[in-house]
Amino acid sequence: MSEKNPAVISDWDYGDRVGGGDSTASLGATDETSPIAAGTVVFENITLISGQQDAQDTANNYTIDLKEVCTNVTIYEDISNYHLTGRATIVDGLDLVKYQKIVGQETLTIKASIPDENGNIFGKDEDDPYMNTMDHTFRVYAISDYNRVSDTTATYVLHFTDPLAYEFHQTKVNKVLRGKYSDILANALYEDSEMKKYLGQSRSGIEETEPDNMQIVAPNWNINRLIQFCVDNAEPKSNKSWKNSMFFYQTLFRTNEQDNLYKFRSFGQMCKSELLHQETFKFFGNHQLDKSDASTYEERRRNIIDYYRPVKGNTLKGVTSGAYAGKMVTYDPVRKIHEDTTYSISDVFDRGDKESHVLKRPMIRADVEIPLYRLEESLSEGVPQIETMFFDKRPDQGFDDITLYRVNMTNAYSDEEKLIDANDSSKVQQQIGLEYRDTGHLERRALLSILEQNTLRVKLPIRFDMHCGTTVNLNLPSPEVKKGEHTPDELESDIYLIGKITYELSPLNQYGEISLQCSKESFGVDIETYRPSKEEEM
């Protein structure tokens, strides 16, 4: 198989903008032992099924092979989105919308495989099937951008999502729910026979939360509303990381046969070493891996095509959003008690360990006051003198930067005749409602703000062995290095959390790319004491 010049969309903004780096430079040259270009993907089928299929009445069956008319397929995976979404661009010369009655209720099945360096495609019976083959069924929910480009041809976009998106919306919960938020959520998901059939028997994706005596009154909530409530309020069982840091999301691939595609997972769990991708990905700049590098097929697959930072820090936004410090004011109308609870980013990192965070050091100078300097006109030995005008307050001590207000009603769901402390171990079975007794809501708000302010988008040749909610090691070069050299940037390189994945596939060109939106809320070094190595200073 010869290398192709791909015409793949580079959807860097996950649906908002098309553009990006030069994909043609990323393919890497083949050598005598590797005829396959990095990024090659082979499509077995792209099948659209409209209408009800009847084995006895095939004339009224509407099974459509889209492989030859689909120019691009894009699939989105996101820890902030409960379901997979995607879109497929169709160039239609057969008027399928009319004759196949496409209205936005169709089933779309996509099956594609990544060959090895010799062009072999591994199936389900191989030792590692989940790393090579994508086989997923989606539900079409919309058709957009219909354009008649000629008398005989039209283009349009099919928007699709996971079939359970409909079930999550249509399944209602109208009762009192008791126990751990994780158990409440798992029971709601597995009570419905249709969802249970789809999800399987394993609940491995549901991480345990605390406390175990919560009570929710769900007034005809759908599953999405219940998920949102649990995500916003559930506390990870381990409090060594950020509090109230649970996420619910779906992945395109399983890590093993027992794994569940749907995850209810804390930020601290995402950072565990067992969820770190085992390969390191490296960027070589304009001198991409080619034949002269004597690189192997796997090395070229680990080569970063392109990367950029949409944002790298915004401390003013961090201050105003409560990323570094904040306060919550609660009032209990039952006990007539007013309470103030404060959050500091220093406390979060002090109580955690290395595996509770992406790395181990805050990405700001949190524990020092930052002076405002100005240069004096006077010189001392030819050097302008620096005058300190005033000091900003420590960002981790700015508790008044943001204030949340909550009503905290003691024993809202109590059956006791007297008021009791919900945290009293002797009353562990006593059910409690939503209570605000710690920094949980402040910390969740802070974490989301920090992750949003430190993002990196990385483009790689297509692969099916990466997942949202895991970490990856990226080796990014210092900009001062000479061609042919690769000195890592100690601040930029390191471990990142994968928050979003975009699969960009071109069936006609048999080529694909994967775009990772990565974040981290910490450095591997202390920013105050860090000094670049001699190699970086060159």
Beta-strand segment tally: 26
* Tally of DSSP helical segments: 11
The CATH topology assignment of the largest domain is: Phage tail proteins - horseshoe like beta roll fold
Proportion of strand residues: 25-35%
Distance between the termini: 43 Å
- The residue-averaged pLDDT reads 80
The CATH architecture classification of the largest domain is Roll
> Mind summarizing the main beta sheet?
13 strands, mixed
What spatial form do the alpha-carbon principal axes imply?
A: globular
Number of domains: 3
Structural class: alpha+beta
Would you kindly provide a written description of the structure presented here, covering whatever features stand out?
The longest helix has 14 residues, at 440-453. The protein folds into 3 domains: 23-162 and 285-303 and 462-469 and 498-517, Phage tail proteins - horseshoe like beta roll fold, CATH 2.30.300; 167-269; 320-419, no CATH class. The chain is of the alpha+beta class. Strand 3 (70-78) and strand 4 form a beta hairpin. 15% of the residues lie in helices and 34% in strands. The radius of gyration is 27 Å and the shape is globular. The chain has helices spanning 96-99, 164-170, 181-191, 193-199, 223-233, 267-270, 297-301, 315-321, 345-351, 440-453, 534-537; strands at 42-50, 62-65, 70-78, 85-92, 107-113, 133-148, 154-161, 172-179, 209-210, 214-222, 235-236, 246-250, 262-266, 276-282, 306-312, 325-332, 337-344, 361-362, 371-380, 383-391, 403-407, 454-461, 471-475, 494-506, 511-519, 522-523. Strands 1, 2, 3, 4, 5, 6, 7, 14, 15, 22, 23, 24 and 25 form a 13-stranded mixed sheet that branches. The relative contact order is 0.16. Residues 1-34 have low confidence and may be disordered. It contains 11 helices and 26 strands. The two termini are 43 Å apart.
